[in-house]
Amino acid sequence: MTRNKLREAAMKLFGEKGYDGTALSEIAKEVGVKTPAIYAFYENKEDLFMTVFREAMQLYNTFIQELLKDQRSFGAKESLHRVLTRQYEFYQQNPEASLIVLRYVIFPPTFLKETIEEAFLQSDELLTNIIEQLITQGIEEGAIREQPVQLLVDAFLNLMDGLSMQYFYYTSREVYERKLNHAFEMYWNGAGS
Predict the structure, then answer these.
(1) Which end of the chain is more exposed for a tag (fewer CB within 10 A), N or C?
(2) What are the phi and psi torsion angles at 148 (to 5°)?
(3) CATH tag for 46-191 (out of 1.10.357.10, 3.40.50.720, 3.50.50.60, 3.30.470.20)
(4) Does residue 71 register a pLDDT over 80?
């Protein structure tokens, strides 16, 4: 129970205040325990941070992987669009995890850069494989014209990255959804048959 509360508080505070701006004493206070109690569960601040960062990445991976369950029920166009809307839903439903992932993938603490990059690359590989499957499905369906799959995967991942930034810029759901739909329409016009 205390371990879970520490992780939740750490995810929130690391996301809001940054690694350097968050003291273990603040995390402990948020949970209602003394700072030494943290050491019963975590080796140090870095261990706690990497635990919550990996948890946030895993939460995102699981959320995206759920798309594959019913991918054959939809055509490639709808499946790819669903990846983008699913990403938006993840941000809405998991604001702390979203913030911590985005913040530290872009601006990792120097001494954790390599460790964070490893965790990110594992997630990126998983997401790349999913997108590749959906694009290959689209080519097989004839909905996407024959062209290098890697080109389409890279462009789609860049679209996702751009929309990630847009999410944090625009608080209006209507504005964000318009931007998402327009960006996807342009992507599809370039990829489709």
Answers:
(1) N
(2) -60, 125
(3) 1.10.357.10
(4) no
